[in-house]
């Protein structure tokens, strides 16, 4: 194992090179969640060739280092103070907190910020207010998307009831009585990820388990669901952290 340095613009990072018999031609680059960059190469590869291969993917490496860093920072419990990042429909918003006893409490999206005006602006109050706002948005948005997606599904004749249910590790579920339960935290995810979860639960109205028939049905309605699921899994910690 050797260590080398990659430079790209004004940035640099060290990376480990491991020569492995397992590989014959390919050079593999991994960016680990803890920010370690690891390069695997076949034993007979020249160091200059390895270096060139790493350089070629420099942009990708730094992008992955940035998202790994974000994931580590934002997976920490939220503090509910001004300046903190919160997600809504897959976008990052900065929290702006203003204490004002003279006006009613409001939450608004204003140019990249979630602006909260509240008579008491301590963390517990802001957390409560924000959570309530997410729920209201989730209720409205999920309902609208379910109706839209369901209207395009030919075997569905009635719009299923929907209920918000906070869950620790799950985005949604479908009850045996045909009611769709959704985690309000899902409103933090990108729109296409939300649609994927809704479609998944809607497909359970026809196929109640994760059988081959279920996945075939899902793929029929969304041929790209595997990629979307992978994306949501990768970001799950960010959106579930409270
Ligand atoms: Zn399922």
**Number of folding domains?**
3
CATH superfamily of the largest domain: Metalloproteases ("zincins"), catalytic domain
Low-confidence stretches: none
CATH top level assignment of the largest domain: Alpha Beta
Helix fraction by DSSP (H/I, runs of at least 4) = 25-40%
Outline, from the CA principal axes? flat
What's the story with the biggest beta sheet? Answer: 4 strands, mixed
Which molecules other than protein and nucleic acid are bound?
A: zinc ion
H/E element order: EEEEHHEEEEHEEEHHH
Counting DSSP H or I runs of 4 or more residues, the number of helices is 6
Rg (CA only): 23 Å
What separation lies between the terminal Cα atoms? 39 Å
Q: Total number of β-strand segments?
A: 11
CATH architecture label of the largest domain: 2-Layer Sandwich
Alpha-beta content class: alpha/beta
Bin the strand percentage: 15-25%
Which sequence of strands runs across the widest sheet? 1-2-4-3
What is the name of the CATH topology of the largest domain? Zincin-like
Q: What number is the mean pLDDT?
A: 91
Short description:
Helix content is 39%, strand content 24%.
Describe this structure in words.
The chain is of the alpha/beta class and 242 residues long. The protein folds into 3 domains: 2-74, no CATH class; 85-132, no CATH class; 137-240, Metalloproteases ("zincins"), catalytic domain (Zincin-like), CATH 3.30.2010. It is 39% helix and 24% strand. It has helices at 47-56, 58-74, 123-151, 191-203, 212-221, 225-240; strands at residues 2-8, 11-19, 28-31, 37-41, 85-88, 91-99, 106-110, 113-118, 162-164, 172-174, 180-182. Strands 1-2-4-3 form a 4-stranded mixed beta sheet, covered by helices on one side. A 4-stranded mixed beta sheet has the order 5-6-8-7, covered by helices on one side. A 3-stranded mixed beta sheet has the order 9-11-10, with helices on one face. Helix 3 crosses helix 4 (191-203). The longest helix is centred in the middle third of the chain and has 29 residues, at 123-151. The protein is flat. Bound molecules: zinc ion. Zinc ion is lined by residues 200, 204, 210.
């Amino acid at each position: 194992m050797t260590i080398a340095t990659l430079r790209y613009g004004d940035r640099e990072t060290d990376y480990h090179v491991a020569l492995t018999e397992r590989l014959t031609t390919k050079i593999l680059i991994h960016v680990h969640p803890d920010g370690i960059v690891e390069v695997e190469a076949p034993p007979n590869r020249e160091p200059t060739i390895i270096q060139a291969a790493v350089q070629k993917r420099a942009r990708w490496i730094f992008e992955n280092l940035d998202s790994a860093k974000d994931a580590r920072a934002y997976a920490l419990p939220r503090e509910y103070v001004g300046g903190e990042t919160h997600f809504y429909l897959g976008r990052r918003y900065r929290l702006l907190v203003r204490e004002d006893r003279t006006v009613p409490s409001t939450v608004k999206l204003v140019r990249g910020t979630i602006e909260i005006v509240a008579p008491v602006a301590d963390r517990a109050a802001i957390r409560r207010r924000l959570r309530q706002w997410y729920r209201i948005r989730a209720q409205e948005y999920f309902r609208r998307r379910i109706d839209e997606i369901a209207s395009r599904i030919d075997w569905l004749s009635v719009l299923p009831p929907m209920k918000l249910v906070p869950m620790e590790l799950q985005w949604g579920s479908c009850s045996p009585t045909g009611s769709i339960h959704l985690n309000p935290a899902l409103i933090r995810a990108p729109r296409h990820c939300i649609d994927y979860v809704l479609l998944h639960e809607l497909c359970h109205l026809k196929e109640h388990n994760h059988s081959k028939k279920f996945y075939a049905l899902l793929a029929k309605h969304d041929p790209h669901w595997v990629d979307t699921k992978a994306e949501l899994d990768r970001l799950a910690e960010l959106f579930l952290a409270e």
